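Title: Comparing notes on inverse folding

I've been comparing how different people in this forum approach sequence design from structure. To keep things fair, I'm posting one structure and asking everyone to reply with a full sequence. Here's the target:
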């Protein structure tokens, strides 16, 4: 049974940092691309970044480039999203998802976690 479980969300002040974790099970992590997406109230689900299968190459949305970074721990079957220099506009529910080929399109991801809330506010 494929599962993805996000954790690490919370309330942080502008300029602060958070690290989200996406714990996976039921599949071999290295053979799947993992994407991070976010959805603010009343808005569509937006692409944040992905890490490709095998090589682990990363790619980020322009809005987070230079502030967010992804990493993969294959031994723990976990993908991390390190978020630095957070801004109020980063406030959203953050989701991780798995697919065969990395893409920025949420509809092409097969498996999703339940999401974790990130709130950036003073």
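Reply #1:
Here's my take.
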């Amino acid at each position: 049974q494929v599962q993805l479980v996000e954790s690490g969300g919370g309330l942080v002040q502008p300029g602060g940092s958070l690290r989200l974790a996406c714990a996976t099970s039921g599949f071999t992590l290295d053979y799947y691309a993992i994407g991070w997406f976010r959805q603010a109230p009343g808005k569509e689900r937006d692409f944040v970044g992905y890490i490709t299968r095998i090589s682990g190459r990363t790619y980020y949305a322009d809005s987070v480039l230079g502030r967010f970074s992804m990493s993969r721990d294959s031994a723990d079957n976990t993908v991390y999203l390190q978020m630095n220099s957070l801004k109020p506009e980063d406030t959203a529910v953050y989701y991780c998802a798995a697919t065969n080929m990395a893409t920025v399109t949420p509809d092409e991801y097969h498996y999703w976690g339940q999401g974790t809330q990130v709130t950036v506010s003073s």
